[in-house]
Write a structure and sequence with these properties.
Distance between the termini: 44 Å
Radius of gyration: 28 Å
Number of strands: 33
Helix content: under 10%
Largest sheet: 20 strands, antiparallel
Shape: globular
């Protein structure tokens, strides 16, 4: 079975920087136009006339030389045989960029999105991404700060301030950067203390949506051996979403859903709030204190402590009203793309504290040794409205009767109300890396050892407040006190200048990854409603009797859910103790030709690898009989590693007296066992009493759940072009073009589940004999599933068709 998808992305990069007399007028005109058409872009827009400048400026008419560390050596960007883009602090300041997500659409074949789940940033490079932001998943693009790996995708939310450079490497980086870099790698390089003197800078930035940003930098040269640097940044901005309170009531009298004047969606959290608390707002601050100490001319010690705090409401997904015009799914009259209907206002409390230390030792002129150590402590709690009022059924979709029958109803109901919350979480990680670099005439190499250990704990709850078949609450709480991730690697890469202008590269990395759950427990069940959620504080009555009533949103109280103790009526939890290990060798082979001092070409083959994983324990047939007549077995729904092999040709050069730079890259990637996360087939089961599935339960013989699967093989050919042009002093014009054409084949998981209609949102369908409510018959152990994806329509295969255009400063 084959699928083909094509993506062409066009980015007009580095907008013209005109003469000072012209800039204010054109800048204000564009800011006003952007605010009307795209609040997301306007929210971070800063008129160039007001933009602060933290870094040095280059007033010359030539393209300045940019140094990057993509090869673990400092090399010229135009002499580095990799597809890499770099941004200085000056460029970020002009763009009004304060975090990684602000670089969305700035780089060919790179898509950066704010996830509405778990406060994470989703990065896609050349169509390769990951949408599992929980502690069970891993990103597909490695995120590094000062070369040190950051294991959690939430780290990419941290403010980028007082930095030297941001480097984005496209394509698998399985040799030098290694872990979780099948798509590529991002390295944020912070500004270091310097010995040039004592100086300070302060900037205030005022922007759209009441944006207020303050940044302060202070450098102190204590003496010729010790230098200190302190930085602070705070950003506050209203949300650009048009957020309204959700007071929805089920209204389908022909199906028995008769309004009674009370909201049917949960009202426990539905307080009146201001725009400064709306989804898409920004309320963050960060500080860094760093020190550099020269022990002697050969040995340097460095240390930095960083604190980041996010008190925002979280991101949001929006309707595509333009795409649905004239269809039955069109946005309702009076509503637009940026409208949200919210009954659970977002709230995030995320703190990331990081300590980085290291030393650099010049053993002799040809040999250096570097050691770095990092400890990061991330704590986070949050609550998010997953449906955002966009999943209520349209009138033509409703076909489910009010569930006042002994067996309930499995049809489509008028109301959908889902939220999740991280009650408490902590991710404590340590990273060690040692590198030895040596040069022997025409040969140089870097070799190193890497060790990362992470211990996570989380209490996470997923709740659907009007759940089938009886309209009571479906909810599950994951209590994971000790999940450990351990990754070790050894790597080496050598460059050999074997002839004038020619350089050959050979490198390899051996990785060993393990994941383990200890003491994990799962309470409740969110795939089916249960009166146990009410915790003895409310009763709907008996289905099929006159007194039965599906709860109103005002009937739910804070004592329902929200803690392990609130789930005591569900009985004993499911335990989750499990461990798995994976090993892999990745490598790189390259050939580079320096045609002239300003022109270079290269060819390379590189590989990448991302470890596998597993979900929470469940029964392979949902505690029913499997289709082969045998009972199910215990499973953790494991999935294997994904791997990428990348064939790449590249060219880089400068022209017109170094006023024009051009780079072009053609690649072909063989992506194997791609990891996809969503609602997928688990097993086929025998319906109760062997009877055929009724019309309102067409999948009663199918067990499916939220899980990660491996997809056979994916071919990703593509092309990337970037240019930067300075036609005269003070003016700059640049851009980028990207194309990928994805071919997915050997999609074995699809073939195995052909009888199953694909569903984005989770939903195990219970069987008729499981429709008994407690007290109406013997209850089987409750099957549970992993947390669900939000309603965002993320790309499920590489190369989501998309046309992008924009201006960047």
């Amino acid at each position: 079975m084959r699928f083909r998808r094509t993506m062409i992305s066009l980015a007009v990069a580095s907008a013209c920087s005109l003469a000072a007399a012209v800039t204010p007028l054109s800048a204000h005109a564009q800011a006003g136009a952007t605010a009307e058409t795209d609040p997301a872009a306007a929210a971070n827009a800063t008129p160039p006339a007001e933009a602060p400048t933290l870094g040095p400026t280059n007033a010359g008419d030539q393209i300045p030389e940019v140094k990057v560390t993509a090869t673990r050596y400092s090399t010229s960007l135009l002499r580095t045989p990799l597809a890499v883009s770099a941004f200085s602090q000056e460029q970020l300041t002009r763009k009004g960029a304060t975090s990684l997500r602000d670089l969305a659409n700035e780089i060919p074949n790179v898509v950066i999105e704010s996830g509405s789940l778990d406060s994470a940033v989703q990065v896609t490079i050349r169509g390769i991404t990951s949408s599992n932001f929980t502690e069970t998943g891993d990103p597909a693009v490695g995120f590094h700060v000062d070369g040190m790996y950051s294991p959690r995708p939430q780290g990419a939310q941290a403010l980028m301030f007082d930095i030297d450079q941001v480097e984005v490497l496209r394509g698998p980086q399985g040799t030098l950067f290694g872990r979780n870099s099948t798509g590529g790698s991002i390295n944020v390089i912070s500004a270091k203390p310097d010995f040039s003197g004592t100086y300070g800078k302060a900037n205030i930035d005022i922007g759209n949506y009441r944006k207020k940003q303050v940044s302060v930098v202070q450098n102190v040269a204590v003496n010729d051996k010790l230098a200190l640097r302190g930085t602070f940044m705070v950003v506050r901005r209203d949300g650009y979403a048009n957020q309204m309170r959700d007071l929805s009531e089920a209204n389908a009298p022909e199906y028995g859903w008769v309004p009674n004047g009370k909201p049917d969606v949960d009202q426990r959290f539905n307080a009146v709030i201001g725009k400064d608390k709306f989804y898409t707002n920004q309320d963050q601050w960060a500080a860094r204190l760093s020190a550099l100490y020269k022990v002697n001319q050969d040995l340097t010690l460095r240390a930095a402590y960083e604190h980041f705090q996010d008190n925002g409401a979280g991101g949001a997904d929006f309707r595509d009203c333009a795409a649905t015009v004239g269809t039955r799914y069109a946005c309702a009259p009076g509503t637009g793309k940026w409208d949200l209907l919210i009954n659970v206002p977002g709230s995030v409390d995320m703190q990331i504290r990081t300590l980085r230390t290291g030393l650099s030792w010049t053993i002799n002129p040809d040999t250096t040794f570097d050691y770095t150590f990092q400890v990061a402590d991330q704590k986070r709690s949050e609550i998010t409205d997953d449906d955002r009022g966009m999943q209520h059924a349209a009138p033509f979709q409703v076909n489910g009767m009010y569930p006042n029958t002994p067996t309930g109803n499995w049809g489509t109901w008028p109301i959908k109300d889902v939220f999740h919350r991280t009650l408490d979480s902590r991710y404590l990680s340590t990273v060690h890396e040692a590198q030895l670099k040596q040069t022997f005439g025409p040969l140089q190499y870097v070799a190193g050892l890497f060790w990362m250990h992470e211990r996570n704990s989380i209490d996470y709850e997923m709740t659907e407040t009007i759940q089938k078949p009886f309209g009571d609450v479906g909810s599950v709480l994951y209590h994971q006190p000790n999940r450990q991730v351990d990754a070790k690697a050894a790597f080496a890469q050598a460059d050999w200048k074997f002839a004038p202008g020619w350089t050959g590269t050979l490198g390899a990395r051996y990785s060993r990854d393990s994941k383990e759950d200890q003491g994990g427990e799962v309470y409740g069940a969110n795939w089916i409603g249960s009166p146990n959620y009410y915790n003895g504080l409310y009763s709907q009555g008996t289905p099929g009797t006159p007194g039965f009533h599906v709860h109103d949103g005002t009937d739910l109280t804070p004592a329902m859910g929200g803690s392990v103790g609130a789930y005591h009526l569900y009985g004993s939890p499911t335990s989750n103790d499990h461990k798995e290990t994976w090993k892999k060798v990745t490598w790189r082979v390259g050939l580079q030709k320096q045609f002239t001092p300003n022109q270079m070409g290269y060819a390379s083959v590189s590989t990448g690898y991302k470890a596998g994983g597993f979900a929470d324990k469940t029964d392979s047939c949902n505690y029913q009989m499997c289709a082969d007549g045998k009972p199910g077995v215990v499973t953790f729904l494991p999935y294997g590693p994904e791997t990428v092999t990348n064939f790449e040709l590249g060219y880089k050069g400068k022209f017109l007296d170094n006023r024009l730079s051009l780079s072009a890259t053609a690649f072909f990637m063989k992506y194997k066992d791609m990891q996809l996360t969503g609602t997928y087939f688990i097993n086929q089961i025998i319906p109760a009493a062997g009877l055929p599935c009724p019309s309102d339960q067409p999948k009663c013989d199918v067990y499916e759940g939220w899980r990660t699967i491996n997809v056979g093989k994916v071919d990703i050919p593509g092309l990337e072009i970037e240019w930067d042009y300075r036609p005269w002093r003070g003016a700059r014009f640049g851009g980028g073009f990207a194309f990928i054409n994805t071919d997915v084949h050997d999609f074995k998981e699809v073939l195995r589940r052909l009888p199953v209609r694909r569903a984005r949102r989770t939903g195990h369908r219970a069987l008729p004999d499981r429709l008994r409510r407690p007290g109406q018959g013997a209850d089987r152990p409750a099957a549970v599933q992993r947390r669900r994806q939000p309603p965002a329509e993320h790309a499920e295969v590489p190369g989501q068709p998309e046309l992008l255009a924009g201006i960047r400063a």
